[in-house]
Amino acid sequence: MDITSVVTIGFVGYFLGAVPTGFLVVKYFRKKSILEWGSGNVGTLNTFRATKSRFLTLLTFSGDTTKGVLSLAAGYAIADAFGGNLDTGATIGGIMAVFGHNFSVFLRFKGGKGLATGLPVLMFLSPFLVPVWIAIWVVAVLLTRLLVLGQILGTVLVPVVAFLVFPENAIPVLLLGVLVFIRHASRIRKIV
Questions:
Q1: pTM for the full model?
Q2: Closest Cα partner for 136 from 104, 167, 162, 105?
């Protein structure tokens, strides 16, 4: 792929991902800033903390996963228009959406943790890795009662599984994991 198509896909993916779904949902329906509640991020779980509404939480989750889907589709379409590799285009678009979600230009580079936006990207890269992540999360939460520890362990171990089972997708899965892990890293000290 040429640099023009990569940069175009990157920008489109980033700005789609940067749309702060949780921030907009909480601001519109509850007239308050999600950044001032709970963990201060704009993701699904913090939407629930800020609103106690299952509907608004589901709306945020749906919006965040849709950003991932749209970015994959945009990357695919742009790569097609430029005559590039379609899978590579979709992957770049999806990963940049997670980057945009986590570090949104609209929120002074604050954002969410990238799990919901990254879900369709991980499914695109390797659908098998989604149940692997969920299984790791479930076991960790059952053993420790710590949701965040489950998220961290799933995010760290899934790239390892990708390297062993799906080496052709290991690098993009690792990049996705790094983006999610960075946003969880501050919580590790609290867990310890």
A1: 0.92
A2: 162
125-180 pLDDT per residue, tens: 999 999 999 999 999 999 988 888 888 899 899 999 999 999 999 999 999 999 99
CA distance linking residue 160 with residue 98, whole number of Å: 20
Distances (CA, A) of 62 to 10, 11, 12, 67: 22, 22, 19, 9
Contact present, 5 and 82 (Cβ < 8 Å): yes
Three-class SS of 153-169: HHHHHHHHHHHHHCHHH
Q: Which long-range contacts (CB under 8 A, 24 or more apart) does 155-159 make?
A: 155/180, 155/181, 155/184, 156/181, 157/132, 158/122, 158/129, 158/132, 158/133
Other Cβ atoms less than 10 A from the Cβ of 110: the count is 15
Phi, psi of 40 (to 5 degrees): 80, 0
> What does the chain come to in residues?
192
For residue 31, give every residue at least 6 positions away whose Cβ sits within 8 Å of its Cβ, in sequence order, or none.
Answer: none
Radius of gyration from C-alpha coordinates of the chain? 16
